[in-house]
Amino acid sequence: MKLKHLLALAGLLIGTGSLQAQTNLLSGWDGGTNTNSPSEFGWTSSANRTLQKRNNGGGIRMMTTYSGYKLENGTAYTYSEGSEPSSVIFWVRYNTSGESFTYTFQGLEAGHIYKFSGLLGWHNNSNTPTMTVEVKGTNSIAKTSKTISAKQTLYAANMGFTVPADETATDFQLIFTCNQTGDCMEAISALSLVEDFDAYLPTLQGKLDEANAIKEAKMDATVAANLTTAISDAQGVIDGSDHTLATINAVLIPLTSAIDAANASIEAYARLKVVMDNAIGDFSAVNNNYEAGSVSDIDAAIAAVRAATKAEAMKTLGTEAAPADWTKVIANPGFEEYETLVRDTKGGHQNNPAGWSNSKTWSDDAWNYAVKSTDNATEGSSSFKVRFNWAADTYTLSQTVTALPRGKYKMTVDVKNYNANGSKCNAKLSINDFETESTTITGATTLEKVFTLSEQSAININLTAIYSLGNGSSEGILYWDNVTLTHYGEEAIEAAELAEAKEQLQAKLTAANGALATAENAGNAAFQIPASAVAAFQTAIATAQAIYNESTDKAAVTAAIAPLEEAISTYQATEINAPTDGQLFNIILKATEKGWEHDNKAMTYLAGARENQGGYNIQYKEEANANLAQAFTFTKVSGNNYKLSQIDADGNVRYMTTGKVYGGNDIQIRTSTNADDAMLVTVIPTALEGVWNLLNVAANQYIGSQDAGVYTVDRNKNFKIVKAQKPSIAINTTAAGWGTVILPFAFDELPAGVKAYTCAAVEYATLTLEEATAPLEANKPYIIEGAWEATLEGDAQGTALTYTVGLLTGTYTEMKAINGTYIMQKHDTVGFYQVDTENAQPKVPANRAYLAAPSAGVKAFVLGEDTALAIQSVFDGLVKGEAYDLAGRKVSHFQKGGAYIVNGKKVIVNK
């Protein structure tokens, strides 16, 4: 039994002398001289059966007049009023499955030991039964069963039990059940439940054995004398015949106290002995007092020996060739010494090795604990065990070692995983800021860390165990052992300091060369870095690189860092070349995500957006095209900060701004015609050729892409900034007299003799044209009639590559003609001829239009010489509608090459 349990038991025994009379806690089970129903003195039936009065003629009742009953040994069993326990028989009849009879009583105490006895019999009816007796409080405390072989024979049912320490009930039940139904009649008699004082005697013997086992160990002389006296007194009680509770208490309590004091003194002396055995310096005074058993202040003695040990160890400085073992400057490196143990209730000591502190204290009833262990020491007689159970957690063991001289050191610690179910823990060793990687421990391993101290300094040692539930089974167990410290001298630190300085310089060189990669964006063009700034930066890098390659002087290497940092700052602060007035640029996404659908698409202003976007928004819609609304003006504000704007469809200058203008936030991208609303955008050259980042200054984040919209988002943030081409549309209808066009801007006035038409319908296989009046609208396809040769320019307002109005579709890019549509061509005459991709694959040029006419069987719509608002149709030879030749005669068939009047229109048949 654990110490904590014994102390609790001893406490319960004090003051319970009234129980020594062995009073039967069930003495009222038969009601005494009461002749009323058993229900009136504590009995109940689970089936609410009626309990009859004593000696009633039938049913369930107490009986004092009976005959024929005997004990197992054949002795007759007769009534004896007032005996202890009484020989009254309680007859019960079980009629239903699960039925029980219960007697309620009081008096059980948590932690106490009791013995129950009673007689059980079978009166008649049913088959051979088995009866069960159960003692129950908050939960079931004890249970026993008895098979009744012969009728009217009373069998003894006895059991001993200890009431659980956590039992809180005040009322208890004695419950009788039977495995038979069908009117089985049973007998219960002579019930007794008393405290078993003789059961406490083994506890006293166990404490005596524990005391005898430690009485020869090294401890304080006074403590040893008290232990000897307590042992003698306890042995006297055991050897005697007076085993009452009072006599046991009288020796158990002082014996327990003497053992506790002895264990504490033994632990303290053991800690001192470990330190003395490991000490290097002069500790004769402490040793003499130790041998004499007269060390009263153990901790002071340990501190004195450790100080002497540490001072002696530090007299020897190591070198790379002959390193010095400095392990003994660490307190308790092998975990042999332990502070006073505190016992818990779940199977482990919660304690610390002397000289170390821990990161937490687990509660007394927790399954997690830290404990001195001897079963898995990797070397020597002990190790330090950390146990995690059913909870992810971290435990750190720490120690500070003061005043270590400068030099190079190596620390190691043995660590071992021990769990039969395969659960694993991670572990790491930390010394100040020097830390090993967190390592998964599967067996035994050694963690090692080399570190340097550039000046005399203290070190903080941390041994950290990390458990993550679910990496094996329910628990993780680690054992720490054998912390070592080795000193390698100052020569090593000088090399280490030079290496550290070069490492720092190399980091700056890496940063500088990474920044210099933007030299691919150097030159005289807009947004490039001036060549002079690049040259100066290259010189600074070359100077620092030479020092890194050649110098063995730490001071010179360190001194090269600051000028290089300054050169980096100067270079990064260089003003890039600003664009000249009037220059326009496309901003093209150069995505970093592979396969990003909006890659290579340019920012495009889109009219008609929500009011809280300024009526316009900006999207990655199409690749760069001179006809689309993609041209931005960059207006310099200061340094590399610009305002971005564009001429919108209404001729207004429209600025890129943040959502703050419309009550949103600085991350949103919106538009506004108010120059004061314009957001600042910093243009930053990157390490990729021809690629820039655009920083939203207000949000201090980069503009990028997460979908088709333009956002402030640190994703897909690389852009190409290229000169935008102003749309230039060539018009040439001089030879044919007919043409098509779509313009990305409005055109004010047509030349004399030139007409423009839209086409919205087909009537009787003839296109119906409607003449358009100037100005021509942007993004609307037209048919042009008349001689017109010109090159038109304007501010592009297109937002899509094709626009369809009526039956005409205009395109801003050259495209393959679609099968079944009509494109303008000249065969014998100019007209819209149907596309047959099986025979040819014609193309529609950029800024031109094609026709999608819903007229079955029409192969072409030719342009007649004497028609102004209609285009003649060419049929496939089949007359459709009223048809006449030029002489006015009605015809039913066409001849190839003939001219006819069809539905009032002149047509020419060429098929």
Given as residue ranges, the uncertain stretches (5+ residues, pLDDT < 50) are 1-21, 343-349, 866-879
Outline type: flat
The number of distinct β-strands equals: 53
| Helix-strand makeup class | alpha+beta
Tell me roughly what share of residues is in helical segments. 10-25%
Spatial separation of the terminal alpha carbons: 116 Å
Cα-atom Rg, whole angstroms? 52 Å
Mean pLDDT comes to 84
Largest sheet: 8 strands, antiparallel
Beta-strand residue fraction: 25-35%
Query: Helix count, per DSSP?
Result: 10
What attributes does this structure have?
911 residues; alpha+beta; eight-stranded antiparallel β-sheet; disordered N terminus
How would you sum up this structure, described in words?
By secondary structure, the protein is α+β, with helices and mostly antiparallel strands. 18% of the residues lie in helices and 34% in strands. The protein contains 10 helices and 53 strands. The strands form 12 sheets. Strands 27, 28, 29, 30, 31, 32, 33 and 34 form an 8-stranded antiparallel beta sheet that branches. Strands 37-40-38-39-50-49-46-45 form an 8-stranded antiparallel beta sheet, with no helix packed on it. A hairpin with a 2-residue loop joins strand 42 (802-805) and strand 43. Helix 2 packs parallel to helix 4 and helix 4 packs parallel to helix 6 (298-313). It is flat, with a radius of gyration of 52 Å. Residues 1-21, 343-349 and 866-879 have low confidence and may be disordered.
